[in-house]
Every structure is written in structure tokens, then in C-alpha cells.
TrEMBL record:
<feature type="repeat" description="PPR">
    <location>
        <begin position="282"/>
        <end position="316"/>
    </location>
</feature>
<keyword id="KW-0677">Repeat</keyword>
<feature type="repeat" description="PPR">
    <location>
        <begin position="177"/>
        <end position="211"/>
    </location>
</feature>
<dbReference type="Pfam" id="PF13812">
    <property type="entry name" value="PPR_3"/>
</dbReference>
<feature type="repeat" description="PPR">
    <location>
        <begin position="212"/>
        <end position="246"/>
    </location>
</feature>
<dbReference type="InterPro" id="IPR002885">
    <property type="entry name" value="PPR_rpt"/>
</dbReference>
<dbReference type="InterPro" id="IPR011990">
    <property type="entry name" value="TPR-like_helical_dom_sf"/>
</dbReference>
<feature type="repeat" description="PPR">
    <location>
        <begin position="247"/>
        <end position="281"/>
    </location>
</feature>
<feature type="repeat" description="PPR">
    <location>
        <begin position="142"/>
        <end position="176"/>
    </location>
</feature>
<dbReference type="Pfam" id="PF13041">
    <property type="entry name" value="PPR_2"/>
</dbReference>
<dbReference type="InterPro" id="IPR053343">
    <property type="entry name" value="PSII_mRNA-binding_protein"/>
</dbReference>
<feature type="region of interest" description="Disordered">
    <location>
        <begin position="355"/>
        <end position="378"/>
    </location>
</feature>
<protein>
    <submittedName>
        <fullName>Uncharacterized protein</fullName>
    </submittedName>
</protein>
Amino acid sequence: MRRWLVNDGNLSGDVLNLLSNMDKAGLAPSCCDLERLVWACTREEHYIVAKELYTRIRERYSDISLSVCNHVIWVMGKAKKWWAALEVYEDLLDDGPEPNNMSNELIISHFNVLLSAARKKGIWKWGVNLINKMEDKGLKPGSKEWNSVLIACSKASETSAAIEIFKRMVEKGEKPTIISYGALLSALEKGQLYDEALKVWDHMIKVGVEPNLYAYTTMASILTGQGNFRRLDALIREMVSLGIEPTVVTYNAIISGCAKTGSGSSAYEWFHRMKVQGISPNEVTYEMLIEALSKDGKPRLAYDLYVRAQNEGLSLSFKAYDAVSRSAKGYGAGVDLNALGPRPPDPKKQKLLEVSGRRNSSEFYDSSHTPRHLKSFF
């Protein structure tokens, strides 16, 4: 069996079959034999063998080596079987041997993989549950873990949840970093809690946490939403003086904020300031600006910007096209909409058409096809 496990091919099935046949023949490997086999499990496809061997040791023998348990946790993580790894860790807590630093480091690394997925996808409830589970198991989340949950809450626009997580982080004695403050500011901005965001910013500066580009950009969006353009000017000058140059994302945040408040003139002014700074606008810039100008009763200017974007080789969405069209017709602007070219397609409608096409094909109804379903962690 050890030779099979170190073989280049995947012979895990052969190992499991031989173990079953040994059971039928009444041949029981010793605890030492089983542990030696666990150590031979080093590849991700070996996880099923490692789990079987671990279960046999637990059921048949009173003692098990902590190093073997740690190795099983490692193999499970390598195979992305993080919840199976957590079960082994829970066995250590309940039945021994007592986990050591290696056990804790391994399981925390697995939690970080799951928290990272929650952060990237904005699955905030998943992140909160993971943090709760870590604390339930006696593991202390660090700033990395708390920040992952904060970012997930921010991405999901769950302002209240972000505030609660930030408070818990501080109460647990973990010092917030610029990533923590940035995520909280973003959540407050999305919840339009501008006054609270200003208090958080002032406190961040007071305790000596230096803002980065992301924090400055978020703050620029907050000040725009608040209509506080005087402080916004000061913020941009402060950035430049500190060597943190505003980017197209920074200006897009300002122009987008102007669009949301219906201030087309302010959006256009910041567009010009952006050009003066030598920053090239992108599709988002033009789309937000066109939307702002269309709502502000400036159809001719919105039309000209759409044409300019096309001349610069940018492909704007159907939303920008519709905004120009509605504004031109609504205000009676004498512009040639045909010059804009065909209306860009709606990606959602395109996807529906593709799905509809597959349903009408014989391949879609192939009875041999078995759909795969994602399993929820909770």
C-alpha cells in the first residue's frame, strides 16, 4: 500500500480495496502501520485514503500521534477539503491530543482560504460565520481575518454588519489597519452615512493611520456625495502634496458621485480637471459623465462626449447610448442619433438568448448529462 501511495499514478482506490479485503480476512494493521501509511499520503488525491486511515486509527486505537493529525489536516487543506480538516481539528479539541502551534497555524490558514473567498465574492454572512466559528474553536482572528470580513461586508453594501465587525475587532484588542478603515469607510459611503464616515476619517488620522490611495478615493466619493466640494479640493491637494497621485478611479468616484446627485456641471468640471492632470478617461468616466449631463438637461454635450469616446476607441455600454437618446428626444436636441452607430447589446439579454438557444438544441436535452450543483458551506 505504501508503494501504491508513492506511485506516480493515483492508486488510492487500490489502497481502499485492499484495506476492505484485509477487513474481510480478519487482518488488522497495527496503529503504527496505519500511521506510516498516513505519512505516505502527500498528494491532494490521497485525501480520501488519509481520511479513511485517520478514521480507522480513531475507532480502533486509544492513542493517535498529534503529528499524524496535523498531517491529515494538511492533506485535507491541500485537497481543498477545508471542512474535513476542521473536523479533525475539532476531534483534537474534544478527544485529544491537545493541538499545538502547528495545528493552529494549519487550521487558521484553511480559514483564511475560506475568508479570502468570502472577501472576493462579497459573501458577508459566510465571512461572519467563519469568524464566529474561529472564536468558538478558541482561535483568535488577526487583522487579516477581520479585514477579510470587513471587505466582504463592504462589497455587499452591508453597512450595519461592517460597523459591528469593526467594533468587535477593536473590542477583541486587534488594532485596525488602513485596510480596516478603508473597508469601513467604503461601507459607510455605500450606506450614505457621510457624517459618520467623516468621524471615522478624522479618528483614523488622529490615531496615526496614514491613508492610502484607496482610502483617499473613498473619501473623495464621500465628500462628493455630501456636496462638500471645498473639502474635496483640499483633499485632492493633500493627496498630491503627499505624493499620492489621484488616478482615473479617483476621478471616476467623484464624477459618479456628481451623477448620483444630478450635478452635471460639477461632473463636467471634474472631467476637465482630470484631463488637465494628464489622466486619460476610460469607459466608466464617459458613461458616468454622460449620465450626469443627460439628467442635467445637457443633451448636446452628452452627445458630443459619446462621439468623443468612440473616436478615442472606447466601447460604451447600452446605458450610455440610451441616456443620450432619451435626453436628445426629451429636450428636442437637433442631433443625428444615427451617427452614434447601432445600440450596444445588453449583456443580460444576450445571455438569456444564449440560454434559450441551448434549450432548443438537442444537446441540452441529452439525458446522459447530469448537472453539477454547488454545495453551500452553511
